[in-house]
Amino acid sequence: MMKILTYDNDILKQRSEEVAEINTEVKSTVDEMFSTMYYSQNGIGLAAVQVGILKRIFVIDIPETGKYTFINPKIIDRSTETQVFEEGCLSLPGIASEVERSKSIKIEYLDVDGNQQKLEVDGFLATAIQHEYDHLEGILFVDRLSPEIRLEKLKEYKKLHIV
Ligand code: CO
């Protein structure tokens, strides 16, 4: 199992690099990311940076919408209309907050076989993708909150994890 890095680790604030080639190493990383996510309670998405790999890869598995691997993704369109869902993150265990994001997005990416894919999604999957995509840019969901709520959530987090 891969170790999931948590909020105090500065790697999470770094930008991930493009994957140059989808080889066996990348494929086994993806497999291990899925296993690690399934092993972690309530995990529906995981970005490579969260396991210390600064590559533009994330995986998502939501029972209602399916299992996806995104490599070198590009969000090419975001709706101005927004939606709010409660979000959590395996790198911030124990806290959750409502986050406002675009209601629908268009994304281009490579799947795990190296095929170019294009997807237009809305609803919770759109939120999940934007959450994971943010990880590739070094952004966490708490960074999307108002300064007051962010501070409150981080206080809550520190209380839970610092003894
Ligand atoms: Co996350």
Main traits of this protein?
163 residues, alpha+beta, five-stranded antiparallel sheet, two-stranded antiparallel ribbon, 3 helices, 7 strands, globular, binds cobalt (II) ion
Describe it for me?
By secondary structure, this protein is an alpha+beta fold. Helix content is 28%, strand content 29%. The chain contains three helices and seven strands. The strands form two sheets. It has a five-stranded antiparallel beta sheet with strand order 1-2-3-6-7. A two-stranded antiparallel sheet has the order 4-5. The longest helix has 16 residues. The protein starts with 23 loop residues before the first helix and ends with a helix. The model has no long low-confidence stretch (mean pLDDT 96). The chain binds cobalt (II) ion. The site of cobalt (II) ion has 4 residues, from helix 2.
SS content category: alpha+beta
Please give the alpha-carbon distance between the first and last residues. Answer: 26 Å
Level of helix content? Answer: 25-40%
Topology order in helix (H) and strand (E) letters? HEEEEEEEHH
Number of helices: 3
Strand content: 25-35%
Tell me about the biggest sheet? 5 strands, antiparallel
Tell me, briefly, the overall form: globular
